[in-house]
Write a structure and sequence with these properties.
alpha/beta; Hypothetical Protein Ychn, Chain: A; 5-stranded parallel sheet; 5 strands
Length: 116
Amino acid sequence: MEMKVVFHVDWDHTDSLLMAIGNMENLLKALSDTQAEIYLVANGSAVKLFRHESASEYASRIERLAEADVHFLMCNNALNKHGIKHEDLLDSCHVVPAGIMEIIRLQAEGCAYVKP
């Protein structure tokens, strides 16, 4: 069985992001023998958490998750609203046009929705 899940962060709260990171790390450990598609979608003010200048305490954990094929998807609408350039983001982040549409698309494709 393949596991598909999307984590959603939308507030500029480090604690929520750290919970999501911990959830994803634990999920990967639990699913060691199972195929998994794991996504994190950040929209709203949460995109601020993924800037190089903001992410020093958890950037290495995000990189390890990305190396394990976790996809970090940033809302372009939110980036524009908060004046954040794509190059300001951690290298493992990918920009999507609209975070909410990405969440809807992923759920339509069978992803479980998790809001830490």
